[in-house]
């Protein structure tokens, strides 16, 4: 009996061992299968990633090749072909922000601003960390007079690139348009912190200071630009003109005439208002020989210019009185007593001063020009 129990126990024990071994083998197989499956999936994903990256690389390569063909076509004057190639480049890789940005630049250069705006808007979505599309978009919106949207995109660009000169200059202009002159002054000073000799910012700052009645702060900024060889001819002419305006607001009329005349030599698109300003300054400086030509030029550009016509009437009256005096030396006059009389001074107070010169002294044509102390 005992032997039988031992045999049963032995069989049961060994049977249990076999069962355990079988279970272990099964579990090991399952674990191995899952591990293999995981590896297979991992390799499959890696293979998929590699394949996707390869496809994107191919697309980028194709886009860049098309962009290079665009450059060649543009330089050869084949604009229509260049436009078609750029469209192909975008179509082949619509998520390539760089290609879209290049397309927008091409569109702007060829006058397609609306299409360029659309491309730049898509570019800002594809490359939200690139400040250039925001800034370029701001300039296009500014040209469309969509000032609010322009400023919004400009702020996004400046958040990414706070020292961008183009963006800061446009921000100053938008602030001026909005009447935020103190903010514009601050913005132009920000430009000068980055580029102390930035001529554009200096000109804008000086013009704004003159507008605010602070011409004494503008003249030290403008004088160096007038002789700066790094400035363009137009920039020097603009500085010379603003300097003449600044001198006039300080009633330094002789200096004003000299600066305005110098600016006229190189100033583009001179208007009737500009000639009237020169005539008015010459009148205040008692340089009558320069008043007549300036009035003639103003009326040639705009025969209906109100203030110039009023000044012309006074000049005509003076000329007629002088002619009467000359005639009286040889012929008897119906109105005795005119001989030896001087022509009356032109009443400058009756004339409307040019914009920016409203705060002027009560001077007449016979008054001496005010000299700086």
Automatic annotation (TrEMBL):
Record bears the keyword Coiled coil: no
Repeat region (TPR), residues: 131-164
PROSITE patterns: TPR
Record region (Disordered): 344-373
Entry-linked InterPro entries: TPR-like_helical_dom_sf, TPR_rpt, Ycf3
Cited SUPFAM superfamilies: TPR-like (SSF48452)
Keyword Repeat among UniProt keywords: yes
Alphabetical keyword list: Repeat, TPR repeat
Coiled coil: none
Compositionally biased spans, kind Polar residues: 364-373
PANTHER family reported in the protein's UniProt record: TETRATRICOPEPTIDE REPEAT PROTEIN 6, UDP-N-ACETYLGLUCOSAMINE--PEPTIDE N-ACETYLGLUCOSAMINYLTRANSFERASE SPINDLY-RELATED
Name this polypeptide is given: Tetratricopeptide repeat protein
Protein's organism: Gimesia alba
């Amino acid at each position: 009996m005992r032997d039988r129990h031992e045999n049963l126990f032995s069989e049961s024990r060994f049977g249990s061992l076999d069962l355990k071994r079988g279970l272990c083998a099964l579990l090991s197989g399952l674990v191995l299968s899952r591990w293999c499956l995981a590896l297979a999936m991992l390799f499959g994903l890696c293979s998929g990633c590699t394949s996707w990256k390869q496809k994107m690389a191919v697309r980028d390569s194709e886009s860049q090749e098309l962009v290079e063909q665009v450059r060649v076509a543009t330089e050869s004057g084949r604009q229509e072909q260049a436009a078609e190639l750029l469209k192909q480049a975008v179509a082949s890789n619509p998520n390539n922000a760089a290609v879209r940005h290049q397309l927008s630049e091409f569109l702007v250069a060829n006058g397609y601003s609306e299409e360029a705006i659309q491309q730049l808007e898509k570019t800002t979505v594809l490359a939200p960390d690139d400040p250039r599309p925001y800034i370029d978009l701001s300039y296009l919106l500014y040209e469309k007079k969509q000032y609010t949207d322009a400023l919004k995109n400009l702020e996004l660009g400046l958040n990414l690139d706070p020292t961008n000169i183009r963006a800061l200059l446009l921000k100053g202009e938008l602030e001026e348009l909005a009447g935020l002159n103190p903010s514009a002054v601050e913005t132009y000073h920000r430009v000068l912190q980055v580029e102390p000799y930035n001529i554009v910012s200096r000109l804008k700052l000086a013009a704004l200071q003159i507008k605010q009645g602070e011409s004494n702060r503008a003249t030290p900024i403008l004088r160096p630009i007038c002789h700066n060889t790094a400035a363009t001819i137009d920039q020097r002419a603009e500085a010379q003109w603003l300097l003449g305006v600044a001198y006039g607001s300080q009633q330094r009329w002789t200096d004003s005439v000299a600066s305005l005349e110098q600016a006229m030599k190189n100033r583009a698109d001179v208007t009737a208002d500009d000639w009237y300003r020169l005539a008015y300054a010459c009148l205040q400086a008692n340089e009558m020989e320069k008043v007549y030509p300036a009035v003639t030029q103003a009326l040639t550009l705009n025969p209906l210019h109100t203030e110039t016509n009023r000044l012309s009437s006074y000049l005509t009256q003076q000329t007629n009185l002088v002619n009467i005096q000359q005639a009286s030396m040889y012929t008897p006059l119906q109105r005795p007593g005119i001989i030896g009389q001087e022509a009356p001074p032109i009443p400058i107070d009756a004339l409307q001063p040019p914009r920016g010169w409203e705060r002027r002294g009560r001077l007449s044509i016979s008054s001496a020009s005010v000299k700086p102390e």
